[in-house]
Every structure is written in C-alpha cells, then in structure tokens.
C-alpha cells in the first residue's frame, strides 16, 4: 500500500479513536498529535529518535498513549514498536503500556505474535481495511488494556 494510504489511516485513527466519538472518559488535557505528514513529536530510540504515527500527550507534555500504523508485519519494525511501547504510560487496568498497533486486516495474528515474541507490551492490536470508495474501518482484534477500548 502506498504511503498516502498509510497517512489516511493514521488521520482516521487519530480522529476516530483518540478519543472515540462521544467518549466521556478522555482526559480534558489530552492532545492527539500525528507525525504524518509533518513530524511533531518523537520518542527515544536508542541514541536516535523515532516519530510514532500517533502520540497522545497530556497538559504537562507527558506522553500518554502511542498508536502505530504498519502496512506490513515485519521484524524490521521491532525496534520502533518497542520504542513506542516504552514511551507510552502503563496506566491501564491491566498495567500494560498504552500502545496500540494497527495493521491491515488479516495481519492481526502475525502482529500480535511479533509483539509477544519480542516482549513488547501493548494495549491493543487492531485491523484496518480500506474500501474501494476509500472508507476506512477499524476492527479490534485483541485488547489487553481497558475493556472500553475494544470497540
């Protein structure tokens, strides 16, 4: 899938899931940032930095949640997925990091296996699809954080 589809999925996820429409539990001081098409907020990646697709910060500029949209499931992504997870808070009911991974529908199991095989804490894995008319849909696959997020 070309980059423009990636960016469309990032924008859709940021707009419709951080927060969900009508969500009453979303803290008033949380701000949703995206790093596409312009880089705005990074997280440490060893001696370098990584720009996750979606970064949620609070009113004190602390990183709270991270969302990554991957077009493939590949071991080459492990380092930046680990960095995104580590940067997210762990203030979930189960204590996992507030880290969400979005992959094309059909790749959810492979994404979950990649995260678990590499010890990457996550709150959820989601599948996405794009219809012929460009409509994007998100389907929860597994949720380890807050049960409310499984929608």
Quick summary:
The protein is an alpha/beta fold.
Describe what this molecule looks like in 3D.
There is one protein chain. The chain has one domain (3-149): Trna Endonuclease, Chain: A, domain 1 (3-Layer(aba) Sandwich). The chain has three helices and eight strands, in the order αβββββαβαββ. The chain has helices spanning 3-17, 78-87, 108-117, and strands spanning 31-34, 43-45, 48-50, 54-57, 63-69, 99-104, 124-130, 136-143. It has a six-stranded mixed beta sheet with strand order 1-4-5-6-7-8, sandwiched between helices. The protein is globular, with a radius of gyration of 14 Å. The mean pLDDT is 94.
Proportion of helical residues: 10-25%
- CATH class term: Alpha Beta
Widest β-sheet, arrangement of strands: 1-4-5-6-7-8
The string of secondary-structure elements, in order, is: HEEEEEHEHEE
Q: At CATH's second level, what is the architecture?
A: 3-Layer(aba) Sandwich
Number of strands: 8
Poorly predicted tracts of residues: none
Number of helical elements? 3
List the helices and strands and how they pair.
Blueprint: H1 3-17, E1 31-34, E2 43-45, E3 48-50, E4 54-57, E5 63-69, H2 78-87, E6 99-104, H3 108-117, E7 124-130, E8 136-143
Parallel strand pairs: 5-6, 6-7
Antiparallel strand pairs: 1-4, 2-3, 4-5, 7-8
Key features?
6-stranded mixed β-sheet, alpha/beta, Trna Endonuclease, Chain: A, domain 1, two-stranded antiparallel sheet
């Amino acid at each position: 899938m070309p980059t423009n589809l990636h960016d469309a999925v990032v924008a859709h996820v940021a707009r419709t899931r951080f927060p969900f429409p009508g969500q009453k539990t979303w803290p008033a001081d949380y701000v949703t940032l995206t790093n596409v098409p312009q880089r705005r907020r990074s997280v440490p990646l060893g001696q370098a930095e990584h720009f996750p697709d979606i970064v949620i910060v609070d009113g004190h500029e602390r990183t709270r949640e991270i969302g990554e949209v991957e077009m493939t499931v590949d071991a080459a992504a492990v380092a930046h997925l680990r960095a995104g997870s580590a940067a997210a808070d762990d203030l979930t009911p189960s204590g996992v990091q507030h880290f969400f991974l979005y992959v094309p529908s059909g790749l959810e199991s492979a994404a979950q296996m990649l995260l678990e095989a590499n010890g990457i804490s996550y709150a959820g894995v989601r599948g996405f699809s794009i219809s012929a008319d460009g409509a994007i849909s998100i389907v929860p696959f597994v949720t380890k954080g807050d049960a409310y997020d499984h929608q």
